[in-house]
Structures are given as structure tokens and as C-alpha cells.
Amino acid sequence: MCFVEIVVLAGGTGGARFLRGVRAAAPEAGITVVVNTGDDVTMHGLRICPDLDTVMYTLGGGIDEERGWGRAGESWTVKAELAAYDADPSWFGLGDRDLATHLIRTRMLDAGYPLSAVTTALAERWQPGVTLLPMSDQRVETHVVVPDPDTGRQRAIHFQEWWVRLRAAPDPSAFVQVGVDAALPGPGVTEAFAAADAVLLAPSNPVVSIGTILGVPGIRAALLGSPARIVGISPIVGGAVVRGMADRCLPALGIEVSAEGVGRHYGARSDGGLLDTWLVAPDDAADVGGVDVRRVPLLMNSPEATANLARAALDAAGV
Ligand code: FO1
Predict the structure, then answer these.
(1) For domain 5-63+106-138+181-317, which CATH number applies: 3.30.160.270, 3.20.20.450, 3.40.50.10680, 3.40.50.300?
(2) C-alpha span between 62 and 194 (Å, rounded)
(3) Which residue's alpha carbon is at the smallest distance from atom 25 of ligand 1?
(4) Ligand 1 atom closest to the CA of 167, numbered from 1
(5) Closest by Cα among 281, 286, 124, 135 to 211
(6) Ligand 1 in contact with 93 (CB < 6 A)?
(7) pLDDT exceeds 70 at position 247
(8) What's the pTM value of the predicted model, to 2 decimals?
(9) CB 223 within 8 A of CB 283
(10) How confident is the model at residue 285 (pLDDT cuts 50, 70, 90)?
(11) How far is the CA of 163 from the centre of ligand 1 (A)?
(12) Whether residue 164 has its Cβ less than 6 Å from ligand 1
């Protein structure tokens, strides 16, 4: 195989796992990951980038496999000390090892380095084997519109508060990307799509991960202008999410919680949508007009299964 350039759009845990499969299925390829930064949050004065860290740790061998986020072998001493001071927020899991990443990132951002440069610097240690590109160097934060428990009035809270403190319990009526209008595609993002031989939409949250990336002005057009085929992998299997809470996000956009619903939401590239091919689980129906739908095992429950899934996606992309 000649040198192949693969571009993957990804969010957190599911996207990171899928990327391990892509790396295994195409060890000679150049892999560039455009990562969602809408989940980013500032807490205790530190800038935290959950999806960038989850991909970096997962591919760098530092992830806590069971949680799917944060560092393996973690301890929570600082978190306990903060709680002892009643320092809010105490509901977010800041691990001692993980804190080093946030301290370095915050120091570099404060020194004026853009997030993309910070990400490159952090990845030096972890050697993820892929190029990590934040979707934007400008801050874009996902906020969730939910009814206020006391007044019932709609109010926007940060995604992390909804996702972690409230466990996505309140029904969201909308997701807002704060700052997106002033955001530009991160350095290297549009170039990556132009040079791509394959573009993959990882089985990440279609609303707050894939949707947030594509909401950055210029990214959707760059994606659709790519010479590569665009292959998506359904994050919904058998009408349910495999992991995460995409099922709590989809209804807010009127998207059916099914492989077919998400496929139709992404739409056919020939019709102004995103997809050339849509991969769904063997038992899932997915009649998505204008899209090549293929049934493949989607459960990433072993390195082999994950590599096979990635290989199926790359086959569909023709690489
Ligand atoms: N997810 C949780 O469910 N609980 C947490 O306390 C938590 C802390 C956390 C800290 C750092 C980090 O990088 C991720 C963390 N996550 C936590 C996951 C995070 O909320 C989600 O992974 C993404 O934002 C969605 O993909």
C-alpha cells in the first residue's frame, strides 16, 4: 500500500478506542485525528480538554481502561483536599496524575501558546502514533439547555455539569456551542481533509462530538471538499448506545436513537450530507437514501474486533 493519509473525526472514549483499531489496521498509514474540544472546561483555574486527553492517553497507553477517561493508576488526593476546602466544583473527577496534564496545558496557554501547539507538546510524551489536531484553537464550549429544577425556566449549563454532575438526567432542549461563531478550523485541519485518502467519522456522539466539530465554520466545507470517501460508523447498536449518553442527546435534535436515525441525520454526501458509506451492526436496519450501507460487527470488545471494524471502514473508503 502506498503511503495513505487517513483523517478521523473523533470525540472521547468511543472515538479513542476506534482509533486504536485504525492504527492496528493501517500501521503504515498517516493518521490525523480532528478532535472535539466542545467538552473543554476550566475548573480550579485549569483548562481541561477531556476528548484530546482521552485520545492522547488511550493511544499513548496511559488511559484508565475501565473508566474510559483519565489516567491509569490514578489517585485522588488533590481532589479530596479541594473538597475538604469546600472548593467547588467537587463533582468533577480530577486525578492527581491527570492534573499534571492540566497544569502544563494551562501554563502553556497562559504563556500564549495556541491549543494546537500545547497538544503537540503534550503528545511528545505520549507518542500516540497519530497527529492530534484540536478542531479549533479558539474556545468553543458546549452548553446544554435544561429546565431549571426550581423555576422550571430553561437555562444553559456547561456540558460537563450536565454530563457528570447531573448524569445527563435533565432532558436537554438544545445544545449551544458557545464561541463557535468566532472559531476557525484549527491549524492543519482543512489541509488534512484536502490531502486525505480516507475520512472516517468515528462512533462518537453525533451531537456533541461529531456535530460540534462540524459546527466550526469552514470544517464541514473542507470535509465535503475532500477527494476521499467519507465513511461513518454508527454509535448506536440495536437501538441503544454502546457507551456514553448519545441517546440522551439525539432526541433534542429530533434524531431517532437508531443506526438508521443517525445515518439519516448525517445524510448522503450526494445529497448535501456527509456520508458515502454508513457502517451499521449486522442486525440493524438502516435505509439511508443515497448512502452505501454496510453491515459489520461494531462492538469494539477486543483489539481484533476493533481492528476488523477499522479495516471494514478503510475498505469502504477504498484504501
Ligand atoms: N466523566 C465522568 O463521568 N465523571 C468524571 O468525574 C469525569 C472527569 C473527567 C476528568 C478529566 C477528563 O479528561 C474526563 C473526565 N470525564 C469524567 C469524562 C468526560 O466528562 C467525558 O469523557 C467527555 O467530556 C465526553 O466525551
Answers:
(1) 3.40.50.10680
(2) 32
(3) 12
(4) 3
(5) 135
(6) yes
(7) yes
(8) 0.97
(9) no
(10) confident
(11) 8
(12) yes
At residue 25, the 3 state secondary structure works out as: helix
Residues 135-173 have pLDDT tens digits of: 999 999 999 999 998 998 999 999 999 999 999 999 999
Write out pLDDT tens, residues 25-62.
999 999 999 999 999 999 999 999 999 999 999 999 99
Length of the chain: 319
Q: Is 51 in the pocket of ligand 1 (CB under 6 A)?
A: yes
DSSP state of 185: P
**Torsion of the alpha carbons at 276, 281, 283 and 289, rounded to the nearest 10:** -20
Ligand 1 pocket residue status of 238, Cβ below 6 Å? no
The residue contributing the CA closest to ligand 1 atom 7 is: 93
Q: How much is the pLDDT for 49?
A: 98
Measured from the CB, is residue 163 less than 6 Å from ligand 1?
A: yes
Name the closest-CA residue to atom 8, ligand 1: 93
User: Locate cell 472521547: which residue?
Assistant: 12
User: Which stretches of the chain are DSSP H helices?
Assistant: 13-25, 50-60, 77-84, 96-110, 115-126, 159-160, 189-195, 211-215, 219-224, 246-249, 259-266, 303-317
Instruction: Provide the residue type at 179 as one letter.
Output: G
C-beta of 235 in contact with ligand 1 (< 6 A): no
Cβ–ligand 1 distance for 57 under 6 Å, the answer no
